[in-house]
Each structure stands twice: as structure tokens, then as C-alpha cells.
Amino acid sequence: MGGGMEYNKNKWIEEWGAARENLEHNFRWSRRNLAIVGIFGIAVPVLIYKGIVKEFHLH
Question: Where does the chain cross the membrane (predicted)?
Fold first, then answer.
């Protein structure tokens, strides 16, 4: 009654999923990772905050 529902696994998607599941075990800090965290985790939020505060004081 519910047959014909087989599917083919995509090799690349399965590899990506496995890598994502094990990310916390395989992650290593590097200069590049520190730079990305510094830019998007600290610099961008600070710049957005300063821009909002500056615009608020102009009004």
C-alpha cells in the first residue's frame, strides 16, 4: 500500500551532515577562526551599536 518510497542517499550531503554532527569534536582554534570571531562576534556588533546610538542622539 505504501511502497515505492525508496530514495538514493547523496554522498556529499551525507558527508556534510556527518561533519556537522562532529563539529565540536573536530574544531580547532586558528588565526583565521580567531579573526572571524573577532570581526563578526565583536567588531560588527560594536559598530552596529555605535551607529544606532549615534542615530538616536541625532533625533
Answer: 34-52
